[in-house]
Every structure is written in C-alpha cells, then in structure tokens.
Amino acid sequence: MSALEPVTPPEERAGIPPQIALRVAVLGAVALVMFGIVFFRLWYLQVLSGEQYVQKANANVTRELPIPAPRGQIVDREGKVLVTDRVTNAVQIVPSELPAAGRPRIELYRRLGRLLHMRWRRIQELVIAGRNQVSYAPVTIETDAGTGALTVLAERQNDFPGVTQRPVAIRQYPYGEMAAQALGYVGQINKRELKMSGFRGVTQGTVVGQEGLEYYYDRYLRGREGEQKVEVNALGEPVPVNLPVTQPRAGYSLKVTLDLGLQREAERGLRDEILSGGSADAGGFVAMDPRNGQILAIGSYPTFNPNKFAKPLTEKELDALEGIGTGEPAPLTDRAANGDYPTGSTFKPITAIAALESGVIDPFEGLGGGQCITVGAEQFCNANKADYGAVGLVEALKVSSDTYFFTVGELANSHGDVIQNMAHRLGIGRPTGIDLPSETTGTVPSQRWLAEQNKLESECERAHHGHRCYIVAEPGEPWTVGYNMDLAVGQGSLQTDPLQMAVAYSTLANAYMNNGYGTVVRPHLGMAIDDSNGDLAQALTFSPARHIRFDPTNLSYVMEGIHDATSEAGGTSADVWSGWDQAAHPVYGKTGTAEKTNQVEQAWYMCYVADPTRPIVIAVTVEQGGWGDKAAAPIARLMASQWFNQPLKLATGSNPDH
Asked: How much is the pTM?
C-alpha cells in the first residue's frame, strides 16, 4: 500500500487592488442610476403622459380648414343695400384626386382652361401654389365661373377628375361704380396686413377690406371664420371621414350716412359734365350736414367698378386703375378726400372772416378799385381785367373782386399769419378725421412753411450732388407779400380738397345758425353697426374736432356777401340759381376758378343751403373745367334740387371769376 501524499494548501489568490474595486463600484452605481432613469421615463410616458401623447398623435392626422364668414352688408341711411354678398359656386381642384402627373394631368388642365377661359399653365401655377401653401386643402381656380361652365362640370364629372364645385359668398356692389372710392373693395389679406394689429388672428387667404369703408370697418364687417376638420394620412393627403364642423358667424352690417338718391344724382351730374366734350377730365364732390358732419354724398370721377376685385386683377388692369402709364387720371384716387388743389375764389370767405376777426379791414371801406393793383414790379388783376371799382366787403364777395381781396392779403401780411391761422382753425391744411383709410393733409403756405420748404430743397440738392429738386420755385427765396396776396384769393401754394372745404363752410354755416358759436365738425360716413338680425349693436358717434367763436356781426357780413352772389343781379352764381325759392331755402354760395400751370383752370363751387331740418353744404370741383359757374356750380344746383325734392335743373352761369 502506498503512502499518502501530503496535502498541500491551495495557492493564495491575488487580492483586487483598491483602485479597481472603486471603479467597479462607481460603474455599478452609474448603471443602476441609468436603468432607474430609463424605467422612470417609461413609467412617466406610459402612465402620466399617455393621454396627452394620444391626443397629440390624433392631432398629427387632423387638420383645420377655415370656412369663410359672409361679410356684413353696407346700407344707406334709409336701409337700402349698397354692398352685400352673393353666393356662387367656386371651381376647385382636389390635388390628391388629380390624374397622374404628366400628359394626363396637363390634358385635364387644358380641358378645364378651355371651359373657364383660362390658360392651362395658369391653372397649373394655382395648383402648385395651393399645394405648397396648404397641401391638404382644395385649391380654388375660379370664384365665379358662370352657370354654363358649372353645368358642364356637373354633367361631365368623369372628364374632370379632381375638379369640384363649392358654394362661396363673394362681395357684390349692386350699383357698380357708385361711391366706389368711399365704399372701397375687398381682397385676400396680404403679408403686410397679416402683421398689422387690426388683423390679429386673421388667417392667410381670408378676404378682408382693402380700401374705403370696407377697410375702415373691416373688424365689424368681416365676421368670424368657421372651421372644417379634415383627416390626413402620412403623406398629408385628406382621408374621407366625417369630422366636426364649426359654422362661421356672419359679419355685422354697417349703416352709413349716404343718401342713395343724392349720391346717384351727384355722380350723374359730375360724369355728364366731364364727358360733355370739353377739357374737363376729373373731379370730386362732397355733400355734408353742417350740423353734425354726416356725409350725405361723396364721389370722384373717373371711377371704377369694385365688382372687378372679386377676381384677381392682372398687373395691366391694376396699373390702369392706378393711372400708371396711361397718362389719364387714376380711377382709384379719391379726389374728394385725397385731392390737392388750389381753390380759387371759394377761399375768399375764409380770407374775409379772418380779416374781420383780426381787425385788418373795415367791412364798409372801399378797396380794390381799378383793373389791377401793382406791388413792386408785379401786377395782380381781376379776371378779364374787369373793374368793379372800390367796393366794400359784401359787394366784393358778391362780384368776387380779386383786386379787393389782393388788397386784403396785402394788409393782412403786416399782421402776421392772420389768414393762415383762420384757415387752420376752420380745417384747411389739416386732416379732418373722416372714417376713411386716407385723406390729404393739404398746405396753407406761410413764412414758416416756406422756410421749411427751402430747407428741404437744400437737403435734397446736397443729396443729389447739387442738382435742383424743385421743391420750391426759387431756392432760398424769402417770404414776400405776394405769397399772402395769392393765398387771399385761393391761389399760389394753397392745396386742399372738397372735404376740407366742406368742413370749413360747415363751420361758417353752423356758427351762423348759432349766433357766432361754431363747431368744426368731424366728417363721417358711419352711422351704426347692426347685428345679423338687423338690431342695433353699436351706435357710432363722432365728437366735434373743436369749437370756434365768431363775432356775429362780422359773420353776417360774410354770409350776406355770398348770399347776394347767388340771389342778386351781378352775383357770380345768380344765373345758376335763377328760379330757386330763396325764401324757403336761401343759398349762400361762392364760385372759384383756380389757375394751374399748363392746364385749363379748375372749376370750384361751394354753397350752404339753409333749412330748419335739412341744411346742406355742397362742395364741387372739376379739374380743367374752366369757370366755376359753368362747370361746378350747375352740379351743386342739381344736387340741391335732388335734396329738397325740387325739379332737377342743370343751369350754367356767365360770370367769369377767379
């Protein structure tokens, strides 16, 4: 038996260095924390946020399409509809239902183009633009295709895959061109408007007011869009499924101060005068209630038909409306509120009240004798070198003596800005605050104004390396008495429009009614906002711009002079008002014939026709119309006849007047 081998102890294992043990512990801890975070995140996503992500997942396949709201109507003071909506069928293309790209799709575009009288490439451009903008929405190709085209599309649907019809409301102006500049027009909101606070919340593609009352009162007229939800697949294509629809809310209606009959007659008179074959080519008018500033009629010619804006205009069509490259007056320009004109002798009552109130003249002192007066080397003459003799204020207004008012301008110049200050107080050379998107500021020349113009000329010449900018006729020329003499008769650098002149005459008229206490009215077209049921939602109020006080005696001399001008032999518009019942409705009127360089004179007429319940102030101007009593005053007589239900009469005068 062999001897047992001795038992040997096992070899000792080498110990783990402390550094490695520490690293293992740290890695284990980090791994444990990471697993904990992952576990917690999974629990958070599945338990706490599961419902939220389900909703977001659903939203990823749901899109909203706006449903346009019908715009509110615009009605005149008697409730007669001036602007409304009409429902028509729009032709639309559903991109996801179109035939394959290439020849089949082009052939479809060609067929549709022949039917709608459109270029097929134009249809293609609209589809591409629409898909880039909102890929899941139908693309509108034509808003008002006509019954013939719509019938063909309905009967031959197989020939027009992807082409559908959808009822839409488009803006309609039943009277076409009437009051177009004041009413305005609509169009799709543009990028600039999307950034404006007044259009906050409005989505791209929404139809909004672009000019006139449509723009100024857009927030009331626009209404609230509805919403059509659509479901789309992973490619962004719509999936046929019924989802909830939020119906749109129609806009409120706007009641305006315009009188339909007066507006229509005024536009006819202005249009007929301009188209009568003479040199006249443009003009404007305003009729206003002198007590409160309500605009009874306002218009401009040439004009345009706002119904044309229901479809996109070509660049050529838009240029023609803006007068670009045509050499003709721009139809879009509102000459009643945005004209810039000298006024001729219609400014003389303003000069007269300024000189009386400041003590520059004695109303009974005879001034202005002779055909002309000479100041320095310059002559200032009456129209046609007439000699009215040295006359007092009332007679000077009646016959419109230029030499009298040239003298007044000369005397007033030594008293400072007497005429200028009165013109500004009456509303000339400053915005009236009318509820339209734009109006002219105008210019009343003064010594300070001339200094500013000289400064602008100097700065402009420096910027253009010494070349003249012609902001002033003679750079650096000082103010002279001649400037003031021209202003006194409504000439020179004076610039204003029929609206401002209507405000000035309204102030004189309402002060005359109220023993010298005058109100500078704030002209306005808005009267009330009505809801969809026709009930009053909001009355529109317009506080006066300011108040003014005249000496009643001084004011009576001015009003007497312009009343004699309409009612006595030799008055500048007495022929125009022959046969008018001056006892029932006394007329206070002034003609004006403004000289313009290289043009036929501009005709003006201003009048106030008194009545206890229906007083009216009328302003009319006709560019290149010639004498005021021949071109402008007859239109005012026609308007007054309409307003007071008198036989319509278009009578011209025969008294030349500057």
From this structure: 0.84
